[in-house]
């Protein structure tokens, strides 16, 4: 398996890591799914911090403290809404991972956990999203030596399986 990449079936809001990534909406003011769960677990201070930031563009990332979470920081990234894959969705999703990893390194973090960005209400096909996630994380880890561990967190068993399938494709040289 790719060194320093871990796949974990768990609740991302319970992980004791330097940062968890929030699959946020453009306003950063909370929503459903993982975004709502992170806001609920972090407490009202997270909403205040996100209001100060004033939003985030699709494919980009911003960082806040973790407040009531076990994670020290939350990196908020806005994934693309799936519209058939012809409106730069793969590139935007890839940039969510790259920008989040860049912020982690910039802030001297060692451990970071990602949810399956854009696969909920944004409708990105799970298998395609998992392939983007594994490709971007694996490529980053090949070039970077500062991050100790990147965790791809699956809440559902099908997400975990999609990650494992993407890792197998990467290791077989079919995911570049």
Structural account:
By secondary structure, the protein is of the alpha/beta class. It has a single domain, classed as Leucine Aminopeptidase, subunit E, domain 1. It has 5 helices and 6 strands. The chain has helices at residues 33-42, 44-53, 89-106, 126-143, 157-171, and strands at residues 5-9, 19-24, 61-65, 73-78, 111-114, 149-154. It has a 6-stranded mixed sheet, with helices on both faces. The two termini are 16 Å apart. 46% of the residues are buried. The model has no long low-confidence stretch (mean pLDDT 96).
What is the CA-CA span between the terminal residues?
16 Å
| CA gyration radius, whole angstroms | 15 Å
> How big a fraction of the residues is strand?
15-25%
Tell me the name of the CATH homologous superfamily: Leucine Aminopeptidase, subunit E, domain 1
Q: Low-confidence parts lasting 5 or more residues at pLDDT below 50?
A: none
- Which CATH class? Alpha Beta
Shape type: globular
Number of strands: 6
Largest sheet descriptor: 6 strands, mixed
Helix and strand pattern: EEHHEEHEHEH
Strand order of the largest sheet: 1-6-5-2-4-3
């Amino acid at each position: 398996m790719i060194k320093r990449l871990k796949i974990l079936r768990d609740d991302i809001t319970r992980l004791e890591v330097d940062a968890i990534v929030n699959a946020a909406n453009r306003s950063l003011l909370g929503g459903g799914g993982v975004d709502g769960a992170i806001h609920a677990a972090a407490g009202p201070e997270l909403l205040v911090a996100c209001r100060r930031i004033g939003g985030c563009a699709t494919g980009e990332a911003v960082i806040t403290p973790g407040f009531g979470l076990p994670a020290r920081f939350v990196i908020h990234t806005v994934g693309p809404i799936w519209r058939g894959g012809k409106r730069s969705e793969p590139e935007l999703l890839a940039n969510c991972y790259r920008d989040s990893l860049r912020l982690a390194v910039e802030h001297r973090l060692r451990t970071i956990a990602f949810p399956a960005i854009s696969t909920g209400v944004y409708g990105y096909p799970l298998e395609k999203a998992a392939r983007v996630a594994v490709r971007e994380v694996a490529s980053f880890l090949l070039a970077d030596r500062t991050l100790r561990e990147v965790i791809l967190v699956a809440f559902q068993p099908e997400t975990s399986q999609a990650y494992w399938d993407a890792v197998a494709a990467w290791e077989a040289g079919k995911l570049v």
